Inverse folding.
């Protein structure tokens, strides 16, 4: 993920962008002097007394202040240089309490990089201030080129020292993915509970009542009791089928025992698309079990959507391996117009796939056809958690 997204390169000229860069370069000097003085003073005092409890608090306070100063510098870069600098994650302590919070700040890489930034900014700020001022007075025709070159160095400083590191960005992504997975798991649990309550559970309660009535009539009216038992037998078959369908919706046994080819063949045979589903699975071995589960449920839901919403007459499912990625594509000849809407089924599939570093792409012009392509890692350490 890019930490910095500079403005598109244009030829230096006298325009609003140049004057914003001039303002930035002229402000480097006072900020560099003030930042250097406070940073060196507080860091020196904190390190000099770090072996005392007071020194720890002084150093932690200085670093905490540097994090706040880095936020202001990122805001200055956004306003005057047009740099889209990402904000870092807050400092996370392993345990609660002021002391653990202070220790976490002492180990914060961004705070120490900010200290280095302000040390560098003193000589750099003096240089940029002098060159910009001289350019305004003596070399005015060259001002756009000079400011562009100097501000480019400022962009590098902000991007390398004040932006969150790649680890911070990965942590942010994983936290977002964890929230998505937790929400998805909670929704699945609610669906299972609802299906049990409204389906098999209600049917079994009615069955128990019918058998109770049959028992009472067993001696009085054996024929009526026999009919009631026969009806109850039919209800048992329906309840068992509902439980099988529910279990298949959680994780089908055929997927565990025989893999994606057999499991998707079962899905294709049950799909209510008039012209049927053509299935092509080319895998030399089985991917991680959690990845298999994600692929299975993705294809199942896409085929359900094609039958119910797209009114498709035919569908084609392809699954294959490309290096260390599992690829799948579902095409149908339905009415099209499928899009990822927040809270919708496609958005849920996309979130589940992207939570394991996968890719989910929907192509569905109005009138069709709809082509959905997904790419999953062949194996992933986070797949087991994400699939649950």
């Amino acid at each position: 993920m890019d930490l910095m997204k500079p403005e598109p390169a244009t030829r230096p000229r006298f325009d609003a962008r140049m004057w914003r860069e001039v303002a930035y370069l002229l402000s480097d000097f006072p900020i560099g002097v003030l930042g250097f003085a406070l940073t060196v003073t507080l860091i020196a005092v904190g390190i000099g007394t770090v072996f005392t409890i007071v020194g720890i608090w002084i150093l932690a306070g200085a670093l905490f202040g540097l994090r706040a100063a880095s936020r202001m510098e990122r805001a200055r870069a956004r306003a005057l240089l047009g740099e889209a600098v990402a904000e870092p994650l807050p400092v996370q302590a392993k345990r609660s309490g002021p002391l653990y919070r202070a220790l976490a700040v002492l180990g914060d890489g961004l705070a120490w990089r900010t200290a280095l930034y302000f040390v560098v900014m003193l000589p750099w700020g003096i240089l940029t201030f002098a060159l910009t001022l001289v350019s305004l007075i003596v070399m005015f025709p060259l001002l756009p080129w000079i400011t562009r070159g100097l501000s480019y160095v400022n962009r590098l400083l902000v991007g390398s020292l004040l932006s969150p590191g790649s680890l911070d960005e990965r942590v942010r992504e994983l936290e977002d993915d964890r929230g998505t997975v937790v929400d998805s798991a909670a929704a699945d649990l609610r669906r299972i509970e609802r299906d049990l309550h409204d389906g098999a559970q209600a049917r079994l309660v009615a069955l128990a009542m019918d058998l109770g009535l049959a028992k009472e009539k067993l001696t009085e009216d054996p024929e009526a009791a026999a009919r009631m038992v026969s009806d109850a037998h039919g209800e048992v078959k329906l309840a068992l089928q509902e439980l099988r369908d529910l279990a298949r919706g959680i994780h089908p046994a055929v997927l565990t025992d025989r893999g994606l080819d057999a499991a998707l063949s079962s899905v294709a045979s049950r799909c209510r698309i008039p012209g049927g589903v053509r299935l092509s699975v080319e895998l030399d071995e089985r991917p991680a079990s959690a990845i298999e589960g994600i692929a299975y449920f993705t294809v199942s839901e896409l085929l359900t959507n094609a039958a119910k919403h797209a009114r498709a007459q035919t569908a084609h499912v392809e699954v294959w391996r490309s290096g260390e990625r599992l690829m799948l594509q579902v095409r149908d000849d339905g009415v099209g117009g499928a899009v990822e809407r927040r809270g919708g089924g496609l958005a849920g599939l996309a979130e589940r796939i992207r939570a394991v570093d996968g890719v989910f792409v929907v192509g569905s012009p109005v009138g069709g056809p709809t082509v959905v392509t997904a790419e999953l890692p062949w194996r992933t350490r986070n797949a087991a958690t994400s699939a649950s």
Observations:
- The chain has three domains: 16-164, 177-250, 253-387.
- The longest strand covers residues 315-322.
- DSSP finds twelve helices and five strands in the chain.
